[in-house]
Amino acid sequence: MKKQKKMETQLPEVMIQPIQSFLSGIEAAQTTLLSRSWYTAWLTRPNLDFDEGDFLRFEKSALVKYAKKTMQRYEERNRKIQSFRLSIRDKRSNISVAKELILEAMKLGATDLHLKLIGGWNCFVLPHEVLQSQTLVRLSLDSCKIDRKVSCPRLKSLSLSRVLIAGNNLWNIISTSPTIEKLVLSNFNQDSIKLILEPPGLCVVDFHKLRVLSLENMIICQELFGDISRFPCLKELTIDDCSIQEEIQICSNSLMYISFTHMTGSRSRLKLDVPNIRKFKFSGCYIPSLSLITTSRIWESDISIRATHTSHYHKILWINYLRVFLLNLRPSTISLSLDINLFPDDMMEGRDYTGYIIPRVEKLTLFMNAPPSLHSAVLGGLFWSCRPNFVTLYWLPSSTFPIGNKKQAENNDFTELFWNAMENRNMSSLHCLEEVNVEFFEDGGRPLLWKTLSQVLANSGNVKIEVCFRLKWGEIKL
To answer: Which tens digit of pLDDT belongs to each residue from 371-395?
Structure first.
């Protein structure tokens, strides 16, 4: 025990502080209980994080007092900081406090500034000292106001969410920061975003440094990508929690990672010409129409679709939409996750895809919440839409859901049906299946020695069980 304590006290500060920087403010403070060296490292940490949520059980002014005391200690000891993070409620009594702390952080040498106003009404105006900083490298703002031009020549990362910006200042921020490598814009209207891609007047700026562009929680239309060639070094494009309208066309030789996540809206069209793609990601409640052109030989697709009754506007053709969508991703290694909440009764009734090309899928994960009367039709339709090499389902204990909830029973019924189908191979869509192997795992990943589903029924108790099938397919007979 003494030897262990000695080793802990000898852990150098340069190793401890990076660990503390990955933790929240309250978590970093808790590390001071480990040893004297952790306490000393925390007192002089270069990354300050003040979150009002960590002080809810204390008096209202606890955060302000703690933050001011901490900043005063750093100033008295002439300690410099690297990053400053402040999350505080947007109310008039906090406006002067937030400004004071931000200016003090800039004085202490902060190059990374993260500001979030909780429940904000955009009352807080960012100080001009921040907007004219010659040393700021990373700036993240949530729910505040910018009322003047920005000139931060060293800025490399900029994240703006629910920020009220007057006039063409959004364009001015971007155009006067030529070193930006990462740009995240959230909760902006279309007109504001168009200022970046279609600047006012005769302004033309090529973003030769920009490598990551993320658009979140907004309506996306084709005009936003009118001239993406102005981002010649763009590697990653993320569109998250957005509604896509009409058709989106993206042509880029530099893009390697494209992500459309939490997508909503009607059945949209995506046309992508990305010769050097390495990974394509999509998640949403519908299956888009996709055209993807690439010369890449090794790339991945990560697809997650939550099928609900509201997302199947062409209900009878849903399985074919999925098949065609996967065919357009066929050169890639495909991981597919389907959360099936409801299928209409006639969704796949009478469908026969004999003679159609059926795409291969490397990994298929299934969650079933449809009525048992539809399970056979769903299962048969899925194997007409793809040929998975690995399939993962779950056996859920009754404790997973409240008493009386049907989801646990529906999911387990489907898992049992899938097991029987693999044993008997009594579906026409399984005519090419040659070999089936199955393994069981606890939810944490520990392998189990069970061989049959009946053993799962008898022994699983209140443990969530992962049921993994490995399928070997023969040549698809057309």
So the answer is: 887 788 888 888 888 999 999 999 8
Element (H or E) spanning 473, and its range? strand 465-473
Q: How many whole angstroms separate alpha carbon 368 and alpha carbon 374?
A: 10
CA dihedral 69, 74, 75, 77 (to 10 degrees): 120
Q: In the prediction, which pLDDT does 439 show?
A: 92
Burial zone of 262 (CB within 10 Å; 0-12 exposed, 13-18 middle, 19+ buried):
middle
66, HSE (Cβ side, Cα atoms, 13 Å): 18
pLDDT digits (tens, 9 = 90+) for 3-46: 555 444 467 877 888 888 888 777 888 888 888 888 888 888 88
* Cβ atoms within 10 Å of 201's Cβ, excluding its own: 7
Contact criterion met (CB below 8 Å) for 121 and 144: no
Exposure string (b/e) for 203-236, b if CB count within 10 Å is 16 or more? eeeebeebbbbbbbebebbeebbeebebbeebbb
Is residue 428 helix, strand or coil?
A: helix
Q: Give the percent of the chain with pLDDT over 70.
A: 81
Q: Give me the mean pLDDT over the 104-132 stretch.
A: 85
User: What b/e sequence results for 66-82 when a residue is b if at least 16 CB atoms lie within 10 Å of its CB, and e otherwise?
Assistant: bbbebbeebeeeeeebb
